[in-house]
User: Fold these one by one.
Assistant:
Number 1:
Amino acid sequence: MPVLTVDGVGSFEIPAGKKLVLALEDEAKIDQLHACGGNARCTTCRVEFLAGEPETKTPGEAAVLAAKNVTGVRLSCQILCDHDMTVKVISRLAGSGRVDAGKRPSDTL
Ligand code: FES
């Protein structure tokens, strides 16, 4: 199983192919935001990669990052845990002022 390391939190074995946003919630117990429900629209699911950044983006991720002129981050709702990776969590419910993290994203891309 791939290992997800969350900077300052720990390392977690993740079922292969699980969405990164769901792994952050379920295995790492992070209050990760995902305001649009994992539909590549809001960018609140953003994370910074410290290692193992995927080389490719889904068309949705590429489009919304370009449209919002956001660089240096990736969208955890558009990435599958199919290899070891290390991320820094930068967009959490705590301190966001939001009432909830957003609708749970679907299990598949
Ligand atoms: S872009 Fe909205 S949850 Fe990922």
Number 2:
Amino acid sequence: MPRTLVEIDRDSEEPLYRQVRNAVEHGIAVGTYDPDHPLPSSRELAKELGVSRNTINLAYQELIAEGFVESHERSGLFINREMRPHSARELDAPSAERGIEWSRRIRTFADRELPHLEKQADWHRYPYPFPAGQIDVAAFPARSWSRCLREALFHPHVFASLQDSVGSDDPMLVEMIRKHLLPSRGIQASPEEILITVGSQQGIDLLARALLGPGQRVGVEDPGYLDARHIFLRADAGVTGFPVDGAGVRLPESLHGVDLVYLTPSHQHPTNATLHIGRRRQLLWLAARSGTIVVEDDYDSEFRYQGSPTPALKALDTAGDVVYLGTFSKFLSPGLRLGYLVGPPELVRELRLARRYVNRHPSGQLQRALALLISSGEYQRAMRRYRNRLMRKWSLVCAAVRTQFPWQPGPFPPGGVSLWVSGPPELDGVRLVELAAQRGVLVERGDIFFLADPPPRNHFRIGFAATPVAAIDPGLRILGEVARQLGS
Ligand SMILES: Cc1ncc(COP(=O)(O)O)c(C=O)c1O
């Protein structure tokens, strides 16, 4: 007789038969029972456990009805082989029946060779964290946000928050973006031209689904935003890099053969260079001549620390060729996953449909809470406070980098939430990042943003939005020491 390993607890409120049934089911799941031997008879088990045979019969009947146990005529009860754990079943299955070979069935995507932008999940545990793409949680307007989340659940907001909106967006949020956010970027748009997205990443993905396919070509900045490159390649489009200098992306003489250009004009990702006005005009002119769609990712234009912010490229676009992407990831938070897209109504209609079959719509409650935050003015106040905080950190980081490194880095563009640091050509920035991490300083390697193979290794990125002010000087002093140690 196999060991039953059934234990019952007489003080439990759970009926005894149920306890027996659950224990046998568990035994089957973990492979306790031999499928070639009968289970203990109800008489044996009742005796062993000191309960009535009825209790055991009831447990067995339920297990039979649910398919865990089978009754074999004149031989007794046996466990159903199919219910055993995978590891046990594989032993007696012929190889052809070993189940699906998932690695052969999953589609191979064209971005498989591309590195991923790895985000260190425990970045906040580093004594000197300089992660890119994270926020200062202490600056998040938590009280006003919780008030808005609560308010969104009551009349007159509750339907917008909780209903299935299928393909539509919260009209109040669309209105707030239209009236309070876009004008500061010089953009005028009607509600039909706006789509709310789950972060700007969804905007890029929807555009790739609707506009790209095999044989099409996307122009990207080099170095540039890696996640966007992944999305374009996964849509089977080809990618061509345009080099970047201190005035942003350097354009080719013609954009013929380029179906779409994706770029970050306000603060080029990852260098933070602002696209020069002359190049902006040249880009729109070239794009109009070749019928190239321009996608402007305006992910952190709010953070400009000197001079006035440049208007969006979309603000110069009279032809309607530019699709604009905005996000609430840099302010308020990347965890909320909210962004928006502005484009011609015909395109927005199609993207809305595409979004509907991916995730229907972004969370109604989050959309309404954000609309309430903007309409109360608290969004704008919190943003000003956050910008001042970031401006201070930016100055501290620039000053520390200039004094601590064995070479003269910079100049640094007066905006963004990170610093792109270029070392002398012989600097091994990847090694620098590894050695710095061993001393508690988290910065980001720069080689992965380049298209070249092998890419240059003498750049790295220092994010500062999430860094505590007190960690800036000591952290960058250590980074400077590591750079000296590497002999740069
Ligand atoms: C260039 C660029 N675009 C967009 C985003 C934001 O993406 P999302 O809005 O999906 O969080 C980031 C964030 O790191 C970024 O670097």
Number 3:
Amino acid sequence: MDQESIPKIRVPLASSGLEKEDIDAVLATLRSNALTMGARVREFEEEMATYLGAEHFVMMNSGSSANLAIIESLLRPTRGEPRLMPGDGVLLPAIAWPTTIWPVIQLGLQPVFVDIDPETIMIDLHSAEYAIRNSRTQIRAIFPIHPLGHAIDPHELQDFCARHDLVLISDVCEALGSWRGGLHAGMGSLAASFSFYFSHHITTMEGGGVATNDLALADDLRSIRSHGWSRDRSDAKQWTGVSNDVNSRFLFVSAGYNIRPMEIQAALGIGQIRRIDSYIDRRRHIASCVAKALRGSGLRLLCSDTLEFDRNSHSWMLLPIRAESKELAQSTLLALHNAGVETRPILTGNFTAQPSLSRILKSQVNPRDFVQADFVSESSFMVGCHHHFTDEQVQYLAESLKNAGAS
Ligand SMILES: Cc1ncc(COP(=O)(O)O)c(C=O)c1O
């Protein structure tokens, strides 16, 4: 590439998202010697619970860990009957993130993949219905992803679960700040996972957590995140009497991992969750600019109707773009690459086509059964929508897309 053709503006998929006050908060935390999980994590958990309208929020070191902890808590609760048993089937969308799928498999449940709605990328409940009727596995749970900032209708999910007697858990790692039917995304579920990885709506560098309204589940999640011990539980004192010959500070009541967050992560989260509304406004503005620029071209922003009809339901993590043909999708990707606009597949594309899955599940899943997931993988891609993009970057992104879509 000669000097002339090197683009002056670049549009990455994500930016750091940190502001001066976030960095100051981290430095103050380090200077206070607060390193491992403590008061700041508790404060962030309270802020998150209030923001989401949840009874409890349990912070962890990533969204992936949050998914793992949810599955563990359903299989081996410290109180009451397990909600899931090994071998039970869990409905999962064919376009997914790997660590929504892996905990299900790793902890002995059966993934049952379901095609997605090609317009919304959400799990398609008609296909889910079909899977329930035709699967040889006893399906006991559904684990939908709220994709790219778009909340799934909680009442539709709850009705579906009531009809089929399913446990509802939600992966909301991409959809902080989206609301539908009066609830934050995922809050109609027994448990909902969140991620604060650096490309997300708020960032704690790495980080995540689980929201739930179920105190017993929240207590188990607190044990699971910290080696299985009882210390951080609301019912810690009751456990002390159970086993007199065990030191109460080293009393382990559940299976566990070490998936705790650090104080500096919480310090980053506290400031950002207070500013999140302005971030989401900016993201909606970027989505509007792109949707407008693409009118009349061979490209379109998926779900852009929410900008007009249901703004709150979409917090726009990244922008999913659909090309009217496979050829246009390919030429657009090349043109954007040359223009310095980063792109990527929609999540992982059709996850059932990943070699890791076929290697581990042997030939149980045929990727070609997921026609819509394949269609989305071939026709669609994502560009960035970060709230820290400058006006110049937003205009450049919109123009680059418009030019590519016109060719
Ligand atoms: C849908 C979904 N689930 C889970 C995760 C995992 O989150 P983390 O990167 O915090 O582990 C991601 C990551 O972006 C995701 O998109």
